[in-house]
User: Fold this.
Amino acid sequence: MGFRLGNDSTTRQVTVLVTEAGYLHRAQGLYGKLARLSRPERSPAVNNPLPSFRGEHPLARPIADLRRHHAAYTRKGYTRILIPPAVVHLDYDEARPLTPVTHRELFQAFTGAAPTTPRSLEAAITAFRAALGLPSRPEHITWAPRDKTLPPRVAAMLRTLENGSALSPERRRPVGWSVSDQGVRLHVGPTGEVLDRAAVVELQAALSAWLHLTKDKERPAPHGDGPASSRRSVLAPGTATD
Assistant:
C-alpha cells in the first residue's frame, strides 16, 4: 500500500510504499522526471533476535512510519494528492535481490495498479491490514504525535503562571518585558537596549510557558500593567537574592 503527494510550488512529488514483507520504500523528484529512490527501510522486527522486538509484528513500525511521512510531507507543502492512499495486489517477489532495476519496477507496478478513487490514509491502512488478516484500530480515532515533555525551565515558569504570578526579567532594563496570564507586554524606556544571549533565552522560556498556558484559549488584549504586587521576577538557576 502507499500514496503519492505533490508540491506544486516546487514541482516535486514523493511516493511512499509499505510492502507485505515489512519494508518502507520512498521515491521523490521533480514532476515528469525520473524519481530518486531512497534506501528501503526494513522493519526492525523482521528476523531480529533481540528480545525487545519479540512479539512485534513486522508491519507495525512501517505503517507508523507511513503515517509519519504522510504528515511530514503534507506540512512541507505536498498537498496535491497525485495517488490517493491505496492498497494493490502486485506480482512482485520480495525474496529476490533488490537491484535499482527491480526497485524501480516496484514503484512502476504500484503507480500502474493504484486506483484514483479518493480515500483517506487510515481507510487504506485498515484495508491493508484486513487483506493480510491483521487486527485494525477502531474507526474514528485519529493519529497525532504525542506532546513533547517541556524543558525544566519552561515547566517551572508555567507553574508560576498557573499560580497567578507574573514573569519578568531578573535585571531591570530600559527595554524589558513581563509575561502573565493576562498576556505578554514589552516595556520600552526613553532609549533602546540590545538584549544579550542570556536575556533572550530567559524571554524565550517565558514566552514558551505562556503559549502553553494559553493553548486553545482566546484572550482579550490586556489593559494596563496590573498591580505591582502581582509581579514576580524569575531568577536564573543558582542566582542569590538580597
About this structure: Strands lie at 2-7, 12-18, 23-30, 36-37, 41-42, 80-86, 175-180, 183-188. The two ends are 66 Å apart (CA to CA). The longest helix spans residues 197-213. Residues 88 and 110 are 7 Å apart (CA to CA).
